[in-house]
């Protein structure tokens, strides 16, 4: 999709306003006492709080004011049709388990693009005050220490790689076994960072994030930020990952190819 410079500026401005509005909606709930948590998953635990809902409502209100004709896909309130060919993909709190546990590794995920994936995205961590931005010529981190460019790591060696995933039990038993093949070759494997792991990859701190069972709203914001920083995000076979499922995020082509080969060993 070809976008004018005016449209790009409008999308960036709107995304920033959405992230600001979601921050304001969420922070009063974080580490507060008496926060109610509902479970969306029968037979398991998939938490949602009023902070999730309030943040998505706040972002949708910004869109209603500034981009009312765009479509929306949000985790909490589903899909709203649009007429521009652009869809905003929103996860108001990615990492609600971390949020209710008090860890500052959750984030607001915002992406906008067409059917072929996100063109611009934000990963925002309100409590730390960090905002990772990618797309339309931008690749930057704004935070307590100012603004700096985002750039992924250049090392392609698996034995020097730092690898993240959110849950030790990655997807199906077959998925988990494939992940363990990569972990066995990596220098260091860490768990539990949710979207913040993707932000660390974009900022040059880690080399790989490998996950399974994702939804579109879990991965589109990170895709835009990582690709703007010079990284690669695909599914485990090298195809598009923006609709969710399995994701392989890598700092560069060499480490991506090495990890993908290990994931697909028979």
Automatic annotation (TrEMBL):
InterPro entries for this protein: His_9_proposed, Inositol_monoP_metal-BS, Inositol_monoP_superfamily, Inositol_monophosphatase-like
Keywords associated with the record: Amino-acid biosynthesis, Histidine biosynthesis, Hydrolase, Magnesium, Metal-binding
Hydrolase in keyword set: yes
Swiss-Prot/TrEMBL cofactor(s): Mg(2+)
Coiled coil: none
Recorded GO MF terms: histidinol-phosphatase activity; metal ion binding
EC top class, as a word: hydrolase
CDD domains: Bacterial_IMPase_like_1
Keyword Hydrolase applies: yes
Pathway the protein contributes to: Amino-acid biosynthesis; L-histidine biosynthesis; L-histidine from 5-phospho-alpha-D-ribose 1-diphosphate: step 8/9
Binding annotation for Mg(2+) 2: 93
EC number: 3.1.3.15
Binding site for Mg(2+) 1: 75, 91, 94, 218
Reaction(s) this enzyme catalyzes, per UniProt: L-histidinol phosphate + H2O = L-histidinol + phosphate
UniProt GO BP: L-histidine biosynthetic process
Domain of life: Bacteria
Family (UniProt): Belongs to the inositol monophosphatase superfamily.
Name of the featured protein: Histidinol-phosphatase
Gene: hisN
């Amino acid at each position: 999709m070809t976008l004018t410079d005016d449209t790009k500026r409008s999308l960036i401005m709107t995304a920033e306003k959405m992230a600001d509005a979601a921050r304001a909606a969420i922070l009063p709930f974080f580490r507060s006492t008496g926060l109610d948590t509902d479970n969306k998953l029968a037979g398991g635990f998939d938490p949602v709080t009023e902070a999730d809902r309030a943040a998505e409502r706040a972002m949708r209100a910004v869109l209603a004011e500034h981009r009312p004709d765009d479509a929306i896909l949000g985790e909490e309130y589903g899909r709203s049709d649009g007429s521009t060919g652009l869809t905003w993909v929103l996860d108001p709190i990615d990492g609600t388990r971390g949020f209710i546990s008090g860890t500052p590794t959750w984030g607001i995920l915002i992406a906008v693009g067409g059917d072929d994936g996100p063109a611009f995205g934000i990963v925002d961590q309100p409590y730390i005050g960090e905002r990772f931005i990618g797309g339309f010529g931008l690749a930057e981190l704004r935070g307590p220490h100012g603004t700096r460019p985002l750039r992924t790591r250049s090392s392609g060696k698996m034995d020097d790689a730092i690898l993240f995933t959110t849950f030790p039990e990655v997807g199906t038993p077959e998925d988990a076994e494939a992940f363990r093949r990569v972990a066995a070759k990596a220098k260091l494997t860490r768990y539990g960072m949710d979207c913040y792991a993707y932000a660390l990859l974009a900022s040059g701190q880690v080399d790989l994030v490998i996950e399974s069972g994702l939804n579109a709203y879990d991965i589109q914001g990170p895709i835009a930020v990582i690709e703007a920083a010079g990284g690669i995000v695909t599914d485990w076979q090298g195809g598009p990952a923006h609709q969710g499922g399995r994701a392989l995020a890598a700092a560069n082509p060499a480490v991506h190819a090495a990890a993908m080969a290990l994931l697909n060993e028979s």
